[in-house]
Amino acid sequence: MIVHLLDRSMCAAIGLRYGADAVKELAIQEWAGASPVYGDRLRQIMAVEGNGITAIFKVLQLDPGFPHHYMDVHYEVVDECHGYFELAYCGALMDAEPFGDAMVTNMCHHMRTAPSTSPHKRSIPRRTFATCTAHPECRQTVRPIVAGKW
């Protein structure tokens, strides 16, 4: 959780000085750059093998981007080539909503459609967010990328 607090303070400082667009771009670059590194490290440390949905979801369960009690993440495995990722509760969304639809769209749409966190998966957004009052907050189809195609 300390990482989130540090990240929030960094984003606030960037936003105050350079605006919301700079925060959006920085957040996407930070996430796209860091998550493959820690994802690969988690795979190695926890001996997660394979590139199917089960392996992807095992790594995501340990992902520091989904701290428990801040995000209520659920996973549904259909088969090794198809699954669902769902946020029943999203603390980040609760933080963004008071700042309006533009902030929610930046966080919920642009971040979720940014480059994948893993070379082995691709998420397809359920919807473009204008307001996020439906439950679950987010549900996405996840498919492994095989030879660059999915």
What does this structure look like?
The protein has 150 residues and is α+β, with helices and mostly antiparallel strands. It contains five helices and four strands. A four-stranded antiparallel beta sheet has the order 1-2-4-3. Helix 1 packs antiparallel against helix 2. The longest helix is centred in the N-terminal third of the chain and has 26 residues, at 20-45. It is globular and about 45 Å long. The model is unreliable at 116-134 (pLDDT under 50).
Query: What spatial order of strands do you see in the largest sheet?
Result: 1-2-4-3
Shape: globular
Biggest sheet features? 4 strands, antiparallel
Task: Note the beta-strand portion.
Answer: 15-25%
DSSP strand count: 4
Structural class: alpha+beta
**How many separate helices?**
5
Structural Rg:
15 Å
Q: Span from first to last CA?
A: 33 Å
Element-level helix/strand string: HHHEEHHEE
Q: Residue-averaged pLDDT, rounded?
A: 76
